[in-house]
Amino acid sequence: MILLVLTALAGPLDEANTAYVDGDYAAAADGYQLLIDEGAESGDLYYNLGNARYRNGELGPAIHAWRSAQQLSPRDGDIRANLDRARAETKDRLEIASTPGPLFWRDSLSLREQLHLAATLFGLLGLVLLAGRLKHGLPTALPAIVIAAPLAALGVSVSAELQDARTPAAIVLADTVELRSAAGAEGGVVVFELHEGAEVVLVEALGTYAQVALPDGRRGWMRSIELAVVDPGAPEAG
Question: In the chain, what are the helix, strand and coil shares in percent, each to the nearest 5?
Fold first, then answer.
């Protein structure tokens, strides 16, 4: 089944790659996005999409694609380098939150990898405890502790990832956006402005409007269509 899927995607992927090499970055981006919309999901595909968007002068969509790529391939240095370069070109200098302490795994393992590792460690812990019950006198305390420690840290990390999914990262797509104190075209007053490529957190959605938060705690409402949520596998906004 997997082979059939890969074979079906090979043609459109080759076409998108050819368009990129030929300098037709808009067509390349459309090709990569079509593959994603049809269910293809990989860090490389989002990385290529980001490259095509960036080459086509679409800073916000490029950052959005690379952030999605980073969720799937967190150890890829090329993705990180491209993100750093693109962030340096944004007008809003927003500090990106880090993940201290035991959550450092979030910078090196995707959520899927963390879940697989946690399942493996949980299985090993079960085998160790079972061995201790079946064979009395077998020293199992130390192996159990060695396995339980990283398992607990993984639990904290996965819990934090799932919590973050409730308020996901999002990228501003419009050139300039006025953030208001209330939802609606004339909602409240303008509290601050953001520009294309700004990275925010989606707090709440209300109809066609979204409330976003900045790293410094400021919040404001904007039109949802001017925002792209970082969610690999979801259709691109805009």
Answer: 55, 15, 30
Q: Note whether residue 136 is domain-resident.
A: yes
Write out pLDDT tens, residues 79-136. Answer: 999 999 999 999 998 776 554 444 555 566 666 766 777 777 777 767 777 777 777 7
Pick the last residue of a domain from 61, 87, 113. Answer: 87
Domains in the chain: how many in total?
3
pTM: 0.73
Report the candidate in 216, 227, 143, 127 with the shortest Cα–Cα distance to residue 177.
227
Does some domain include residue 235? no
CA dist 13 → 33, 63, 183 (Å): 10, 21, 40
Q: What stretch of H or E contains 209? A: strand 209-213
Same domain flag for 70 and 129: no
216-231 burial, b for 16+ CB within 10 Å, e for fewer?
eeebbbbbbebbbbbb
Cβ neighbours for 72, distance < 8 A, ≥ 6 positions apart: 41, 42, 43, 46, 110, 112, 232
**16, part of any domain:** yes
Residue 146: domain span: 101-164
